[in-house]
Amino acid sequence: MAEALRLVRKFDAAPEDEKSRELILALLEQTDAPFSRRQFQPGHITCTAVVLDPAARRVLLMHHHRLRRWLLPGGHVEEDDVTLGAAARREAVEETSVRIAGRGRGRLVGMDVHGIPANRKKGEPFHLHHDLIFAWAAESDEVEESEEAPEVIWCGMREFAQYDVPGSIVRAAGRAMEG
Predict the structure, then answer these.
(1) To which H or E segment does residue 52 belong?
(2) What is the per-residue pLDDT for 60?
(3) Cα separation of the two ends of the chain
């Protein structure tokens, strides 16, 4: 939890991301299990990856199977994730088979708090994902589709509008490309 608090406190959020930053800080400071996927009130931390192609001109997007929209790969933090950036990296690899260069920690480039619809099959009520977005670089353009990501594409910033990419992702991708 100390890593998350340090990262979120020092993150220079855009005005549009400040509310998410405040909500994430409150979650980390005021709840006992902020990383537990079973904590539904007020939600839990998830980690997402902005994966840049080798030329750092395009971002890896996946069509999310359940939410039915184009998003970044990402998901829940697992106990064996060494860092939060490593959680984002692991999720990107699991969902798209992308090969990510190096190990490192990833760089926090964005955050977003958003609602997740109830999932009756899993016994999950509507809840919030307090998402930390980390930048990574791909070794190659090779990716694969999966059950969680039935469509996977490389997308340039100018193409984001046609995929209805949320503003928090656009801002995070812009930060990632700035270096």
Answers:
(1) strand 44-52
(2) 97
(3) 26
Cα(73)–Cα(92) distance, integer angstroms: 5
Give CA–CA dist 31/53, Å, rounded.
37
Residue 38: count other Cβ atoms within 10 Å of its Cβ: 9
Cα separation, 100 vs 113, in Å, equals 26
Q: 168 by DSSP, 3-state: which?
A: helix
CB 102 within 8 A of CB 137: yes
On whether the CB atoms of residues 163 and 70 are closer than 8 A, the answer is: yes
Q: Which helix (H) or strand (E) holds 54?
A: none
Assess contact for 7 and 158: CB atoms under 8 A.
no
Is the pLDDT score of 9 beyond 80? Answer: yes
Q: Are strands 58-63 and 107-116 parallel, antiparallel or unpaired?
A: unpaired
Question: What pTM does this model have?
Answer: 0.93
Under 8 Å between Cβ of 8 and 111? yes
H or E element at residue 21: helix 18-30
